[in-house]
């Protein structure tokens, strides 16, 4: 990697324009090497706003970059990430890496084969308020139960969210959009998920999960993007031998993304995998895919029971 690493951006939507591009443009340790998007006019506008170059050809941007950041739908991201790794670019991935195990595995294996570093931007792992809390709780141990909820209101009446127009979020729901955030906290604190003991459907596209962890602890998780606006909230609470610990609130997505850039640079220079790398992203996809399958099976059983009645 160059002494001043060049990082390009793939994506031009609200997440890219509000978080990724401002963070890359403001980062003092890198050169923002350019923008590519599926809409060339949006790439041109975003690049002009941040004083960099727009690329019509994704391979040209890869050739001009030491690393690339992704702000694309997961199943658009995955094949492009594997392509970027093969071109020798380090990867700053969005979550989820993919919504299929095969897609996430392709990214992880491509990164390993090419010997490039990777970081998955699970926001809570990099936010200034939550990252130290996660490390502290993981070091303490002795946790018995985790309770997590992420109630988004993207698709509810009265919502003004710019992300409500996202087709992949509407198709895949909160399980895939905010589920990675919750799991990125629970796994380092409670241990890997050894069993998805229950996954059922709630109102709208909500999912209720019960998980067993390697430490012996259990967790309950509720995820939704269609909760009422006045009920929208996210939080994680731990219970154990130290009492009760509540994850602090967080803000500043731009600063959090800047911290993820720092983590990628450290992984490159130190030659050590980051805990939240593409292999971790693959693990998240496996858990979410299992939860989705179990929820579908539970819905099928419930439908058969109604027919029997």
Descriptive notes:
- By secondary structure, this protein is α/β, with parallel strands linked by helices.
- It folds into two domains: 6-125 and 254-277, 3-Layer(aba) Sandwich (Rossmann fold), CATH 3.40.50; 131-248, Dihydrodipicolinate Reductase, domain 2.
- It has helices at 14-26, 40-49, 58-63, 74-86, 101-114, 131-140, 167-177, 179-190, 253-270, 278-308; strands spanning 6-10, 31-36, 54-55, 67-70, 90-94, 118-121, 143-151, 193-201, 207-213, 218-224, 233-240, 243-246.
- Helix 5 (101-114) runs antiparallel to helix 10 and helix 8 crosses helix 10 (278-308).
- The longest helix is centred in the C-terminal third of the chain and has 31 residues, at 278-308.
- 49% of the residues are buried.
Mean pLDDT value = 95
The secondary-structure element order is EHEHEHEHEHEHEHHEEEEEHH
- Helical segment tally? 10
The overall strand count is 12
Uncertain spans, ≥5 residues at pLDDT below 50? none
CATH topology of the largest domain: Rossmann fold
Molecular shape? globular
Physical arrangement of strands within the biggest beta sheet: 3-2-1-4-5-6
Number of domains: 2
Structural class by secondary-structure content: alpha/beta
Tell me the name of the CATH class of the largest domain: Alpha Beta
